[in-house]
Amino acid sequence: MLECGLAPRCSAFSDCLNKSAMRRAPHHTSDLESNILKGVRAANGISRVQLARNLDLAPSTAGIYVERLIAEGYLEESDKAERDTGRPPMLLRLNPERGEFVGVDFEARNIMAVAVDFSDKPLRNAHFRIAETDSVEQIARKIEQAVRKVMPEDENRLLAIGVGVPGLVDSAHGIALHYEYIANWKNVPLAARLRKKFGVPVFLENTIRTMALAELWFGQGLGVANFLCIGIRSGIAAGMILDGRLYCGAEHAAGELGRWRCPFISGKAAEWFAPEDRAPSPFGPELQEVASVRAIQRALAQAIASGQRSLLRDSANPIPIHDLVRAVQQRDPLALQVVSEAAKCLGWAISHLLLAIDPAKIMLAGPLTTLGEHFLQPLRAATDSLTPPESKRTAEIVNSTMGEFIGALGAAALAVHEWKPASTPVRAKA
What we know:
about 425 residues, alpha/beta, Arc Repressor Mutant, subunit A, Nucleotidyltransferase, domain 5, 3 domains, five-stranded mixed sheet, 15 strands, about 20% strand, disordered C terminus
């Protein structure tokens, strides 16, 4: 079963790593070596003595496994350059040439893939489109094509694949359970399919949680113990890092923020955002029906169809994000109003998250980050106005800076974390 507690890269790595698990099963060679690699990965250069101390291992025990990992090419040693006098200590580092990991992230319209080397450096990326008419089988084939596009020419260098899956996921069994915005997307055995196709371990996680992992390992969450990553694409969800660990929930379904009922929208804008294929709920629409990318595109189209004037009148349907950004920058009244209404609704949800979770930081991820302050300003204003004065939180709300491949990078980080080197007997030194 996959762990949800992925340790961040920070000086307090020894507090984040699960030492007790190592004490319970010291004979599991691959587990020990995996934790050693994680320790080196987190420190980005560490002495053998400090590594043993961080992992609560005897130096001699740590040395046995470190030597094997060096012999296998996973680790390498180099001098620490900044020492002025005496013999510089040798630092353990990851060998970037030892292999590669692939991360894939997808939602209703796009598939993103990225390859990283053994030291987490991004190497190649690919982007595939999903058509509304694509079947589950066609989407699965496109995911395979995306992996094939970024994987190394020498297939033996591929070590593992991570996949960020939208909607509900059974990570323990590698099954994509359900996603509302892809027809017939139910109980898809995606991990088994990719494992059979590429011959390497495959790990699945909800896509918003892979985004949170990307921020934790590579982005603005580096060293932050408590933060939220809110992904806004076809749907909306929240990835939660709590006490330095990825939180998944009792049934691996935490963070389904988009299903919250939002009573915050009214008036003419409510008519624009109203879905055409369902009756309104007395409790308000779901958040993803009024604050997602898809909801904004639909609201703009319905407003224009009802006679509202806009620079977007001649845009394609759905309205491309780059057209929306240009209209907002040109102060188009309709575009500004729709974006503001969506931002206020998301601010309503964030105000409740602040009271419930008290994060230090909130990152927004997805295409709407290209709107910059035009989306952040009304969102922050709504959050402040809806948070009781006596309960004001100081969480910083920012846009992710990781771009459109954030989920794929996080999926690669998932593969890096869950992968273990092949286990072979290790003999103690005489």
